[in-house]
Amino acid sequence: MSHITSVFSQGHKALIAYITVGYPSIEDTLKVVPFLASSGCDIVELGIPFSDPLADGATIQKASFYALENGVTPQLCLNTAKELSQKIEIPLVFMTYFNPVFSYGLQEFCGACASSGVSGLIIPDLPPEEGSELETITQRQGLDLIYLLAPTSTKERIELIAQKSRGFIYLVSVTGVTGARDRLPTDLEVFVNRVKQIAKQPLCVGFGISTSEQARRVVRIADGVIVGSRIIQLIETDDNFMSTIGNFIKELRQALDETSREER
Amino acid sequence: MITRDNQLPDSYGYFEQFGGRFAPETLIPALDKLNKAYNEAKNTPSFWAEFNSLSHDYSGRPTPLYFAQRLTEHCGGAQIFLKREDIAHTGAHKINNALGQGLLAKKMGKRRVIAETGAGQHGVAAATICAKLGLNCIVYMGEEDMRRQSLNVFRMKLLGAEVRPVSSGSKTLKDAINEAIREWVTNVRDTYYLLGSVVGPHPYPVMVRDFQSIIGKETKEQILAKCHRLPDYIIACVGGGSNAIGIFHPFINDRSVEFIGVEAAGRGIKTGKHAASLVAGRVGVLHGAKSYVLQNYAGQIMETHSISAGLDYPGVGPEHSYYQTIGRATYVAVEDKEVLEAFQLLCQTEGIIPALESAHAIFYAAKMASTLDREQIIVVNLSGRGDKDMDIVVKALEMNP
For chain A, first and last CA: distance in Å? Predict the structure, then answer.
């Protein structure tokens, strides 16, 4: 059992939070992540900013550009992860695009992830057809390479990704880019069930989730929920964002715990 | 070896190590469907019959292969021929690809077409074909490009397209492609993405190449008819690289024909303000394909500069990266000031106003011709006309119109 899969043991519903490293500053990242952990998050996704984030909507695009302007690099993200992993117990996962990883060198990057206490990688522009080299390297380093599935994925693709994804499978709730949305698609349950019939891994749903009501609906059918843009928005709009984020995470935690109690 | 080059890319879209499909999962099934639809169309004679008939009656093909006698005399060396894509309907080679993909979109039952544009030539071509085929057209264009190519923005609107300004990043072609891809991810089920160059995830590089290959096929017939032999050099400008691949590819197995691709050196390679991905970049992944990319040490894509919006792009088609790696083509770069020189030279010697993009190729051809003897033949792909560039040229030359 990997550090990531252990989160889901005994039917625990996972709360996964995303933040862009270095937004608004590295000091903030070093403060926010332990706070997310103590407020009830099970996994934190650390976004390594990329200049051309084509799977991201306006919120994360803006945070990424801001962080890049402030000089955030993959190396700085690795250093930050290392510092964080010494403070907190929960798994850290990097989310980024393929080019920064490729540019760093696949071997070198995965080695650095492992020695910085990072447990896995999510790379939205790397489908399994392009991932075989990185799969081999991540396995050797004990990292989970987490693949994504989308509502447009065919049965053949669900089978392929069920075979390859490690840690969990990231289900993209909507056909679209990241970003908080008022409502989730009506056929979300149909999509999650299609995957459930084939995949054995835990299934976590992300993209567009911004309220505890939505989180409740998601974990009735899935094993975890991923929240990103909403957290970035809270950082963006509130000077006193630590307490707002804390309340938001606690609310989500409560929604998840209540749902799993109902199930039992 | 010879037949092999003709068969690339492989079924994963690779030209050896270049190409592939680095795209979000949401798009992979759509790319699969597109690939399947394209392969079916490719093997359907009636599809090509319609393409050829419209190329002839609507786009005005074949475009002439013109012997530039006064330019040749001016350079005092090799004979220079111009493949006159500037005469094609809408003023550039872009119409070939827009027509092919427009027919494919219609065949696939997609009524809504999105496209990106840099100089606006692809946007105009896409808007034109959509008007002709009765499809809805949305064009993404960087704000910086909208400013410097405002005439083309107006043309697209006249043709019934919606032009959506893109304000992220450098506000140029790269950012317009990002935004078009995001739009496609969001509305993938009913939308056709009409990508304008030999870039992007498989099957775009091969599909766009096939539609643009009409340029090279005509050139081959025309030069054989005029000179009874193949040219020694073919020269074309390279941004994403669609006009260059279009004229190069039909000659791929004619080893005596040397290919030269001319990139934008902008204010000079050393200044960092350029768009010469093959000359000064390194291998990376941008917009779904592995190829040469202008990027910083941390793998962030760099902002580019060129006087021509159509070449102002930090990536290049994977097939060009492959040609450079195996030595089949040579890539060079020409600076903005040299481009302006060639622009005026062609105006004054031949009465032809070239697009700033194409003027890159003209500069290099003129320079090279003067070093060769009179028996040798250079074909330049004059990929577009320069009407759209008047504002820029006026400013750059500090002339009063």
Answer: 24
Handedness of CA B166, B171, B176, B179 (dihedral sign): negative
Token readout for B336 is: 């903005």
Q: Is B250 on the interface with A (CB under 8 A)?
A: no
Enter the ipTM.
0.96
Tracing tokens 């006249």 back to the chain, one arrives at B158
Query: Is residue B116 among the annotated active site residues?
Result: yes
Instruction: Report chain B's mean pLDDT, rounded to a whole number.
Output: 96
pLDDT tier at B5, thresholds 50, 70, 90: low
Q: What is the pTM of this model?
A: 0.97
Query: DSSP readout, B289-304?
Result: EEEEE-B-TTSPBPP-
In this structure, are strands A224-227 and A203-206 parallel, antiparallel, or unpaired?
parallel
Q: Residue B148: pLDDT above 90?
A: no
CA distances from B209 to B198, B203, B319 (A): 6, 10, 9
Closest Cα in chain B to A71: B298
| Gap between the Cα atoms of A137 and A166, Å rounded | 13
Amino acid at A123: I
Beta-carbon separation of A103 and B299 below 8 A: yes
Per-residue model confidence as pLDDT tens digits over B159-172: 999 999 999 888 98
Whether the pLDDT of residue B279 is over 50: the answer is: yes
Domain A12-145+214-263 has CATH 3.40.50.80: no
Phi, psi of A29 (to 5 degrees): -60, -45
**Partner residue facing A102 (CB), from B24, B27, B299:** B299
